[in-house]
Amino acid sequence: MARVGLTPERLALAGAELADEVGFDQVTVSALARRFDVKVASLYSHLKNSQDLRTRIALLALEELADRAADALAGRAGKDALIAFADVYRDYAREHPGRYAAAQLRLDPETAAAGAGVRHAQMTRAILRGYDLAEPDQTHAVRLLGSVFHGYVSLETAGGFSHSAPDAQESWTRILDALDALLRNWPPTP
Amino acid sequence: MARVGLTPERLALAGAELADEVGFDQVTVSALARRFDVKVASLYSHLKNSQDLRTRIALLALEELADRAADALAGRAGKDALIAFADVYRDYAREHPGRYAAAQLRLDPETAAAGAGVRHAQMTRAILRGYDLAEPDQTHAVRLLGSVFHGYVSLETAGGFSHSAPDAQESWTRILDALDALLRNWPPTP
DNA sequence: CAGCTTGCCTAAAAGTATTAGGCAGTTGCA
DNA sequence: TGCAACTGCCTAATACTTTTAGGCAAGCTG
Q1: pLDDT tier at A1, thresholds 50, 70, 90
Q2: Dihedral of alpha carbons A179, A181, A183, A185, sign
Q3: What CATH number is given to the structural domain containing A176?
Q4: For residue B53, with 0-12 CB atoms within 10 Å meaning exposed, 13-18 middle and 19 or more buried, which class applies?
Q5: Is-contact A58 A16, C-beta < 8 A?
Q6: Residue A147 resides in a domain
Q7: Residue A92 and residue A22: Cα distance in Å, rounded?
Q8: Buried residues in B7-18 as b, exposed as e (16+ CB within 10 A)
Q9: What is the DSSP annotation of B60-99?
Q10: Angle CA(B19)–CA(B102)–CA(A110) in degrees, nearest 5?
């Protein structure tokens, strides 16, 4: 019996690839075993259960996304940073739809806190350093940016903007223009 | 054998209730059969397959959501309309998390077009009548609003804003203030 | 090289999805 | 009203996924 050299990390990575190929909800312990040409039960030495697999894929995706975002943010500020950061999310979702779907998985709070979720929040806040926003408006703005990025990318990958003019890229550009303008001119509390 | 009086509509409704109780991804043909105290195979007279069930629940949710939104929009304009419309989405997601998750299901284009998706887009556009936006900026704004509403509600129901100040309601209010300000003062194309 | 760990295996049980074919309760028509 | 057709729910059967238990041998450890 040749040992294949499975590890939780390799399984998560292969699961992520599988997700990109067939969709995150089609990722199954059985399919993964097939991919390694190994019996299903063997995976249970490395995975607690199928939820564990999904969670690992989600954490992998969040990590990759945070790495890319950190890269994009380095050396940029203001609108440049805003656009670069936003593009990371959008590009990642387009390149890796399965991974992006995985990143949307509801994690229990401790798992999420242990993962890259915190980095994402910190980086979003870092973008706002280029704008003049005091608390609590800064937090409101963080949440707005998170909502727009996630919302737009979700709707676009769901096909919501296809088959209609103007194309999705143009709206994306103009929406980022608008957000930049909004952040530079955040309305006072009424 | 007492006839239970199953119909696709009753199954979709019961499926929606089940989704709200146990989560949309736990909605299964078997669970639904159990709920009606009927054998699983019996449901296949009314449903093509389990995907058909999920699609019907999604369409039901989209319809309910559109009905509520239409109601909220009646007799309102400008910022009032914006807030009322946005609150419909947020409240629906909080009251009916399973249904809201169902509404996010990727539908193939024809199914989506046949359903209430179009109404949603039209209503979002109706809100913008209270603002002075010409095409193509109007479409950009429609997409921005959709993204913010969907994104915020997703992140909030995923627990993204809990356990941190300020509370989610306050951010929501201020984000809607900000969007209103942005729509009243949409930046020109650079 | 002897022994121990452990990675992958077989076996088995439980749940879900789906199809085929049957019977009885209901409907519709004379 | 009576009978025929329909159709709603059933049993039976197959296939796939998840998960647990227990076994054997590969390869590291001394």
Answers
A1: low
A2: negative
A3: 1.10.357.10
A4: buried
A5: no
A6: yes
A7: 16
A8: eeeebbebbbbb
A9: HHHHHHHHHHHHHHTT--HHHHHHHHHHHHHHHHHH-HHH
A10: 70
Residue A174 lies in a domain: yes
pLDDT digits (tens, 9 = 90+) for B34-68: 999 999 999 999 999 999 999 999 999 999 999 99
| Residue A88: inside a domain | yes
Hunting for tokens 């350093």 — which residue is that? A129
Chain D nucleotides reached by a protein CB under 7 Å: 7-13, 16-22, 25-27
Q: Which segments of chain B does DSSP mark as H helices, in order? A: 8-22, 29-36, 50-73, 78-95, 97-103, 109-114, 117-127, 137-157, 168-184
Q: Shortest CB distance from B137 goes to which of A109, A150, A174?
A: A174
Q: Using beta carbons and an 8 Å cutoff, which residues of B are at the interface with A?
A: 25, 104, 106, 109, 112, 136-137, 139-141, 143-144, 146-152, 154-155, 158-161, 163-166, 170-171, 174-175, 177-178, 180-182, 185-187, 189-190
Total count of domains within chain B? 1
User: Residue A190: inside a domain, yes or no?
Assistant: no
pLDDT tens for A113-161 read 888 888 998 999 999 999 999 999 999 999 999 999 999 999 999 888 8
Q: What does the alpha-carbon distance between residue B88 and residue B80 come to, in Å, rounded to a whole number?
A: 12
Cα-Cα-Cα-Cα dihedral of A42, A44, A50, A54, to 10°? Answer: -90
Binned at pLDDT 50, 70 and 90, residue A109 comes out as confident
Domain range for residue A101?
Answer: 8-184
**Residue A103 is encoded by which pair of tokens?**
């990143």
